[in-house]
């Protein structure tokens, strides 16, 4: 009789200990890192030799609503000019500078660019959306020395026109030297018509 009570108590303790270890913090789902809400994307092309900066923007007034970012006009650059292009991102609904957040989390973000083939003298080609290894002139890097893309360099040649696409990928835990456009989630995907005159 004493043995059966002993075994019942022992069994109960084992079940309780398993229940407590089964509910450890390790079993809780990981906290998600939500994508940023971006309502305005502003590109600023500043000529390296001085002169007037050229800006282009895309807006999405409803934020997380059904509408996407839409360009507010075409881009026109001067021929035979080298530009530094910077990107500014804002959430106008929350009055938030999303660019600062990208800088803080630069190891999780990367901009990719696609453009009409040979639209620029540098970088040549058509961008790095179709091939991560293609030429792109990034001016900024994250803490792991991987490109970010908030600042890039572009050199125009003679008169021509085409399209210019900017894609921001959020790549938490997957951004590497070989991660590409298929990794992570797109937070920005905008295409402008671009003319060189």
Structure description:
The protein is built from 2 helices and 10 strands; from the N terminus they run αββββββαββββ. It has helices at residues 2-22, 98-104; strands at residues 40-47, 54-59, 70-71, 75-77, 82-91, 96-97, 109-115, 151-155, 160-170, 185-196. β1 (40-47) and β2 form a beta hairpin. It starts with a helix and ends with a strand. Residues 18-26 and 28-33 have low confidence and may be disordered. This is Lipoprotein.
Shape: globular
Number of strands: 10
Helix and strand element order: HEEEEEEHEEEE
**CA-based gyration radius:** 25 Å
Number of helices: 2
Strand content: 25-35%
Mean pLDDT: 87
Protein name: Lipoprotein
Organism: Agaribacillus aureus
Question: How is this fold's topology laid out?
Answer:
Elements: H1 2-22, E1 40-47, E2 54-59, E3 70-71, E4 75-77, E5 82-91, E6 96-97, H2 98-104, E7 109-115, E8 151-155, E9 160-170, E10 185-196
Characteristic key phrases:
2 helices; Lipoprotein; alpha+beta; 34% strand; globular; six-stranded antiparallel sheet; single chain; four-stranded mixed sheet; 197 residues; 14% helix
Summarize this structure briefly.
With 197 residues, the protein is α+β, with helices and mostly antiparallel strands.
